[in-house]
């Protein structure tokens, strides 16, 4: 069993768990993900590592309560509670080495919940000597989280809200496009909802700036056997769980991916309704 050593409410729908999992914490790197299952027979869900503390032996995940399992996590589990499975770290970590010239100027774009997994990548690149710009996007001020964590590490921080209630008004792509017109960074890493990552990729394509995205596809086993997480990258079939989850966004077939993400919608709605009763 794995215990929740800290739990923090970030907004009405988002929350953080810090989980005691020394083996996972010992080898977790930015870009890795974990598979979590609450109990026997429960759904297995992939979650990107938001942080880890090797000394405390803990891994932090940030979750949005959208489906049955994530709502169960929000409503039925408290600090000190335990759950069944926490497998990881899985996937390929993000590489921070960028040859003899170093990582140069890196831009980290996080949209909503994607702000959490972009954080360890920002920290790793900062430690590798990069000049860092962070662009964080939220729908509204109430959803903003980890501003101070980002401010402590980013050389430049831009916060955007869709409704203009905090920071710059508008979406992250607007801030990204304005920044690209001012200066050309070496690389962009964008993590968030699929439409947001797709929009970031289309924004940077015109400027010829490499853009990595983290694909949180529907996963079942998380080890490359079921095919559920299949995605086409550069015309080749890849599996997000073992080949990713980070890929060159300019090569990703987002049209196919967005269609595939909808294939269990009816089942998800039934499961969600069952939790309402
Ligand atoms: Fe099964 Fe990736 S989740 S192959």
SSE topology sketch:
Layout: E1 2-9, E2 14-20, H1 22-27, E3 33-37, E4 45-48, E5 51-53, E6 58-64, H2 68-76, E7 82-83, E8 85-90, E9 105-111, H3 115-127, E10 131-138, H4 147-153, E11 156-161, E12 168-169, H5 172-182, E13 187-191, H6 194-205, E14 211-214, E15 230-233, E16 236-239, H7 240-243, E17 246-248, H8 254-260, H9 265-276
Residues 219-222, 224-229, 239, 241 line the site of FE2/S2 (inorganic) cluster.
What does this protein look like?
The strands form 4 sheets. A 7-stranded mixed beta sheet has the order 12-11-10-9-13-14-17, with helices on both faces. Helices cover 29% and strands 31% of the residues. The protein has 2 domains: 89 residues, Elongation Factor Tu (Ef-tu), domain 3 (Beta Barrel), CATH 2.40.30; 156 residues, Nucleotide-binding domain of ferredoxin-NADP reductase (FNR) module (Rossmann fold, 3-Layer(aba) Sandwich), CATH 3.40.50.80. The protein has 277 residues and is an alpha/beta fold. The structure holds FE2/S2 (inorganic) cluster. FE2/S2 (inorganic) cluster (FES) binds next to loops. This is Sulfide dehydrogenase (Flavoprotein) subunit SudA /sulfide dehydrogenase (Flavoprotein) subunit SudB.
